[in-house]
């Protein structure tokens, strides 16, 4: 004897499961599209800075170039500032030293990095590990003094 579909009860467990699956998929999409990018751009730099402060490594590198550059920042209100930094080209890659560098003393500080000299540079381990990703945003790892 076969039961007909006419007298069968509605399939509520399957409908509830489908609704649950749809909601889980919607939450995952929101996380991937909204929450993760916001966390990446807002929380990522703070986490990297904190990690770099507590995980400093020393690299022995040959200095190739040391140039003074001026960087600028800008806020959403249109307010910005300029600061000087020394961009170091080394055998270990490019780094930036902005600690205590001003437009007035930048050239003198850059001369301390003599081309051909071998220097021990203290750099955050997280910045070294993420150097490729930082390069995509035109950022260089910072030298710690």
What descriptors fit this protein?
elongated; 4 helices; alpha+beta; 145 residues
Distance between the termini: 86 Å
Order of helices and strands: HEEEHEHHE
Which class best fits the helix and strand makeup?
alpha+beta
Nearest-integer average pLDDT? 87
Rg value: 27 Å
Q: What's the oligomerization state? A: single chain
Number of strands: 5
The level of helicity is 40-55%
Low-pLDDT residue spans: none
Described by strand count, sense and barrel closure, the largest sheet is:
5 strands, antiparallel
| Mass-distribution shape | elongated
So how many helices?
4
Task: Please provide a written account of the structure.
With 145 residues, the chain is α+β, with helices and mostly antiparallel strands. The protein contains 4 helices and 5 strands, in the order H-E-E-E-H-E-H-H-E. It has helices spanning 12-54, 106-111, 125-129, 131-136, and strands at residues 56-74, 80-90, 93-97, 118-124, 143-144. A 5-stranded antiparallel sheet has the order 3-2-1-4-5. The longest helix has 43 residues, at 12-54. The radius of gyration is 27 Å and the shape is elongated.
Topology:
Blueprint: H1 12-54, E1 56-74, E2 80-90, E3 93-97, H2 106-111, E4 118-124, H3 125-129, H4 131-136, E5 143-144
Antiparallel strand pairs: 1-2, 1-4, 2-3, 4-5
What is shown here, in short?
The chain has about 140 residues and is α+β, with helices and mostly antiparallel strands.
């Amino acid at each position: 004897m076969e039961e007909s579909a006419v007298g069968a009860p509605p399939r509520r467990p399957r409908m509830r499961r489908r609704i649950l699956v749809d909601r889980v998929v919607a939450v995952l999409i929101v996380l991937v599209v909204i929450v993760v990018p916001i966390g990446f751009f807002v929380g990522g730099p703070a986490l990297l800075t904190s990690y770099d402060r507590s995980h400093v490594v020393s690299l022995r590198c040959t200095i190739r170039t040391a140039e003074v550059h001026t960087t600028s920042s800008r806020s959403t209100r249109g307010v910005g500032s300029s600061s000087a930094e020394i961009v170091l080209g080394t055998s270990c890659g490019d780094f930036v030293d902005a600690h205590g560098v001003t437009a007035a003393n930048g050239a003198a500080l850059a001369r301390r990095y003599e081309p051909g000299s071998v220097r021990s540079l203290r750099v955050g381990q997280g910045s070294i590990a993420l150097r490729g990703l930082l390069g995509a945003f035109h950022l260089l790892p910072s030298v710690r003094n």
